[in-house]
Amino acid sequence: MGQPETLSRQLADAQHTEAVGGWLADRLAPFAEPLLLGLTGPLGAGKTTLARGLLRALGVGGRIKSPTYTLIEPYETMAGPVHHLDLYRLAEPGELEFLGLPDFLEEPGLVLVEWPEKAPLLMKRLNYLVALDYSGEQRTMSITGSGKAATRMLASLPTSFSDQSGPLSR
Ligand SMILES: Nc1ncnc2c1ncn2[C@@H]1O[C@H](COP(=O)(O)OP(=O)(O)O)[C@@H](O)[C@H]1O
Ligand SMILES: [Mg+2]
Predict the structure, then answer these.
(1) Residue 32 above 90 pLDDT?
(2) Which of 25, 68, 103, 133 is deepest in the core (most CB within 10 A)?
(3) C-alpha of residue 46 to centroid of ligand 1, in Å
């Protein structure tokens, strides 16, 4: 593993946050190994919006609920299984076992985790971290990853997600 690299972008509105999810889906699918992607940032920063964009890009239809109360929502997608977790309400890290977490972390598939800080062991195993934030009206995201695949992926990050023309338009 090399040094982690981080790239940041501004996100003009919710559609752009979803577009980041779509871009990630394009880069990460199909899932040949277990992939753990953390989504951090304060309440309302856009974590679930990004997860939704990612799931939609993988062909998930219908309403995509936030796992706020269920803590976990599983999906079968065309790229493989995706588990979407929101650990905001996790009382203690030991609870993760009841969610079946140790199992699906060993299987090829994507695990999207909002509030990964709630589970330090998970935090250590993240392949990618997407940090969302806002100050006033300004929304930002930064993506961190390390290793060859991450470096290659980050090199292809669009300079702006504000431009909806081009490969990101769906
Ligand atoms: N880049 C953005 N600019 C403005 N609003 C956004 C942006 N991204 C998401 N939102 C909006 O912010 C609100 C909270 O988003 P959500 O994804 O539920 O946050 P979180 O999961 O981090 O708590 C939603 O109404 C969403 O549409
Ligand atoms: Mg959320």
Answers:
(1) yes
(2) 25
(3) 4
